[in-house]
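[Discussion] Sanity-checking designs against the backbone

I'm trying to build intuition for which residues belong where. Below is a structure token string of 200 positions. I'd appreciate it if someone posts a full sequence so I can compare it with mine line by line.
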């Protein structure tokens, strides 16, 4: 088998496995959104929902674009071709993304990084800080995906913890209400008994 075919097959194996990993995380994120929908619509959580989805989609799109050279001249060539497609066709779909992968891969992973950095800024206890260092395309994708998985797990644990706390607070409130009603009823019985004795 020709070396180029070996490299292509190896890339496709990596891309398929990576996309599967990303989609598994996307299902976990969707479950989290559905199970705690009211929470994600609050001011505190809604921005995080946008960023988590942004990372997930960007990495989903980037997985098949990672077989790039990283040469600056090729990045610029692909950027120019991509821009020409936007102007000439007024449309972009996956084939254009793939033809311009030297630029588009960078676009998607930079978008993922920006969203991860924003998540860390507002949720530092849940999302690790993005460590900027030189990585090749696959390493960059895998690093962003790992941070996404940590973030999703962190939000899941926090949502469950907050639900448990809210449930405990609600139970405490209901117990206080029941105790108050019991005292009121007991007081009413005591008063009626006194009235009955004084009337006798």
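Best answer:
Here's mine. Compare freely.
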């Amino acid at each position: 088998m020709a070396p180029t075919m070996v490299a292509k097959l190896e890339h496709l194996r990596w891309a398929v496995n990576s996309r599967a990993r990303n989609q598994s995380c996307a299902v976990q994120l969707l479950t989290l959104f559905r199970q705690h929908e009211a929470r994600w619509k609050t001011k505190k959580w809604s921005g995080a929902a946008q960023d988590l989805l942004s990372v997930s989609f960007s990495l989903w799109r980037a997985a098949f674009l990672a077989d790039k050279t990283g040469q600056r001249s090729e990045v610029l060539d692909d950027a120019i071709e991509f821009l020409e497609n936007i102007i000439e066709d007024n449309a972009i779909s996956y084939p254009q993304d793939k033809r311009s992968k030297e630029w588009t891969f960078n676009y998607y992973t930079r978008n993922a990084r920006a969203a991860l950095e924003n998540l860390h800024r507002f949720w530092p206890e849940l999302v690790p800080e993005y460590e900027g260092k030189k990585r090749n395309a696959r390493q960059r994708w895998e690093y962003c995906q790992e941070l996404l998985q940590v973030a999703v797990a962190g939000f899941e644990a926090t949502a469950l913890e907050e639900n448990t706390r809210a449930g405990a607070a609600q139970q405490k409130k209901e117990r206080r209400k029941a105790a108050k009603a019991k005292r009121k009823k007991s007081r009413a019985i005591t008063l009626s008994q006194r009235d009955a004795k004084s009337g006798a």
